[in-house]
Amino acid sequence: MSYRVVVGVDGSPHSAAALRWSLDEAQAHAGQVEAILAWQVPFLSNPAAYNKSELERTYQEFLIKTVSEIAPSPAVPLQTLVAEGDPTEALIAASKNADLLVLGSRGRSPFAGLMLGSVSQACAAHAACPVVVVKRTDEDV
User: Fold this and answer.
1) Within 10 Å of residue 63's Cβ, how many Cβ atoms?
2) DSSP 3-state helix, strand, coil percentages of the chain (rounded to 5)?
3) Do 36 and 8 contact (CB within 8 A), yes or no?
4) Is the N end or the C end of the chain the one with fewer CB atoms within 10 Å?
């Protein structure tokens, strides 16, 4: 069985740093990386106004584009997965089959002053595997 690293990706500079770190860690362990983007139907609207399969396809395209820009030719197997639902719940569920869960210290939240994002904090407390929280570097801005 291969060493499996799950990483949350949301397009933020912190998640870019987490993906880079994950790829290095997986390479050191001859493992693989699964990049996960969790999405939800927007809350401030009528859910019937959205085509669920179109939204999912859009998020999948966004994830593939984001991962490809960060790691155009990864040295380890890299799989992408979109998960409908709460990001915290999706990442905790994915941690059950992982050796390591890697997250950016903050996501796309407008609360820039927070030291640790709510998703990172909840995952660190409840994941089924060890969790690494990565802070972005100047390279990730």
Assistant:
1) 20
2) 40, 20, 40
3) yes
4) N
Q: Which two tokens stand for residue 85?
A: 């639902």
How many whole angstroms separate alpha carbon 11 and alpha carbon 107?
Answer: 8
Measure CA of the first residue to CA of the last residue in the chain; give whole Å: 35
pTM for the whole structure = 0.87
Contacts of residue 104, Cβ cutoff 8 Å, sequence gap at least 6: 8, 10, 12, 13, 14, 15, 16, 17, 18, 117, 120, 133, 134, 135, 136
pLDDT tens figures, 68-100:
999 999 999 999 999 999 999 999 999 999 999
Closest CA to 18 of 106, 108, 124: 106
Backbone angles phi, psi at 134, to 5 degrees: -110, 135
Q: How far apart are CA 103 and CA 91, in angstroms?
A: 9
Q: Which domains does the chain have, with CATH numbers?
A: 4-140 (3.40.50.620)
Instruction: Say how far apart CA 43 and CA 121 lie, in whole Å.
Output: 23
